Q: What sequence folds into this?
DNA sequence: CAGTGGTCTAGACCACGAC
DNA sequence: TCGTGGTCTAGACCACTGA
């Protein structure tokens, strides 16, 4: 007997059974849950099938598994959410609106201490720096202040960023990377206020993001959004 | 031959090989990638092993798989990030600081139209409403304005929220749920400014979150944080 | 030592899409 | 029809943990 018969696959049935039990509190956080062997006997499926169910629950953060010990109901401490950071150009186009970018700066300059640390270069080393304002239907939506490691994207200064966003360009140079980010709310500085056409001190949503490709820092960006015009939405489970 | 020999498991080797190829641009977004059968031949492993590697890459958003067609390199459109939303009490205690909560409101009241819609009840139906300020070492960190569906947490009004946070209490009532959230930056309202001991109009980081348990709305909360005192940090890969 | 999870195999049947 | 991915099996060896 194999193949998905009626509604769902076997591993999904096992998974749902355990999920239901966790939701009902049948296993309190930290408590030992049934072993693979027990579930094999209970559901009459092979161990690989049970293993897949448990592995996916682990990936979702619902259970913790320790080799040689067992599977435990996860603590409730935190929940993981999936936050989708899109390329702004695509996001705007998808809304059926028009995106354009104003390039206020695109230059080579020596890194100050803070930038040097974030890009993993020596203070004073030359790095690339862009300052770009992205607009949706002519309304400023994001002020992108970005520093780039020249070793990773040597042609960065030659790119026409009115035609492609730095994010998208860098994704082409290094399609896979790790990132760290910090979200915060800040009052607009005088310069930011001027660039975004808002009042000085207005609340802004700020994302600072550093990306790393194979251990080498690629770029560090500070993305400032007018609070009244920009939100980040998402959903997650559990 | 089986078991993890030297450094890593077979499925990890297959996975890393494909990840490297994607990073180098060997397969451009949308392009067809090797089939399971090809990878089986190339690596000399079983199909289940290759399947696991591909399934995990799919879960990570690096490839897209279509039954009957093949596996494709994913588009670069977006990246998924893991944002960890912790229980504020635990977060503060973990920093070695002291958390306390000031309960400004804990009452039953009729839902207005907006709240009724978010909690899936009729306008005018009675719901629970709490307004709590959380402090770290005596400094206000979060103003939590929360509405709760009485059907899910009937004992909500009897809970002492100076001893347990609403988030943690609700996790006990419904350990597993789905959530939607919106992040934004807003100026502090007069009331928020008073509660958080900041100036009116100061930039605040706002999280609005709605959670659903088995299709039934549990709670909707608006969490307002002083921008100067609160940040959300995280990391993600790819 | 026994029990646990971690991984792997060499097959298998199925659903689906393209031809 | 053929090749694709989706799922499943009944074993297996291994590393690890705890008694």
A:
């Amino acid at each position: 007997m194999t193949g998905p018969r009626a509604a769902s696959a076997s591993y999904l049935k096992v998974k749902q059974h355990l999920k239901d039990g966790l939701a009902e509190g049948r296993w309190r956080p930290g408590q030992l849950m049934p072993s693979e062997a027990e579930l094999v006997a209970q559901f009459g499926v092979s161990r690989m099938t049970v293993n897949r169910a448990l592995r996916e629950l682990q990936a979702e953060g619902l259970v913790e598994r320790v080799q040689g010990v067992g599977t435990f109901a996860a603590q409730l401490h935190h929940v993981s959410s999936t936050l989708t950071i899109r390329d702004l150009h695509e996001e705007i186009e998808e809304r059926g609106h028009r995106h354009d970018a104003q390039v206020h700066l695109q230059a080579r300059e020596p890194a100050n201490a803070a930038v040097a640390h974030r890009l993993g270069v020596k203070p004073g080393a030359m790095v690339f720096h862009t300052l770009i304002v992205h607009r949706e239907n002519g309304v400023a939506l994001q002020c992108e202040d970005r520093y780039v490691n020249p070793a990773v994207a040597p042609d960065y200064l030659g790119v026409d960023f009115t035609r492609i966003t730095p994010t998208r360009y860098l994704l082409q140079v290094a399609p896979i990377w790790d990132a760290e980010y910090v979200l915060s709310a800040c009052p607009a500085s005088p310069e930011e206020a001027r660039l975004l056409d808002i009042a000085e001190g207005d609340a802004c949503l700020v994302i600072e993001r550093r990306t790393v490709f194979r251990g080498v820092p690629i770029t560090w960006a500070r993305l400032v959004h007018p609070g009244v015009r920009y939100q980040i939405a998402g959903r997650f489970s559990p």
Notes: Chain A touches chain B through 56 residues (CB under 8 Å).
